Amino acid sequence: MSDRLAPPAASFIREHEVDLGDRRLRAGIDRPTEIEGWWLAVLWVADDEGIVACRTVAPASGPPPDPPHVRLGPLLSGGLSGFVLEEGGRQQLRLRLPVPPVDEAHPWSAPLVVQLAVRWEPARAASLTPSKLADVALAAFRRAVEAVHRP
Is residue 70 predicted with pLDDT exceeding 90? Predict the structure, then answer.
């Protein structure tokens, strides 16, 4: 029996395969909600035993000294470039790890589950179905996780 967290729900859309070279994982997303113009979703990476730790996707040389969201955030933001509303020169995107690490001294021990908040660029959002928006976000998340893993 695994002591890892189970995904919070069945993925809202078909899971994406996360390619880490020698290992294949699955990325999923819950059903997004919208609150005060912000699109909110929970995304995760799991295998058959549950949600993997962030250190699972760290480079082979080991986890970087900064927390996982510091690496994932810019990569995810870049992957969503053109889809995210900009105000005052800043992308309207927020990312956080809602589950604390198992060991506070090792931030990469946290489960690889993130909360994403996005204010979509209105023309893009109007032209996509809710499922397609979720797929855009999940694909960008998958690519970000794969990029973190590369040396």
Answer: yes
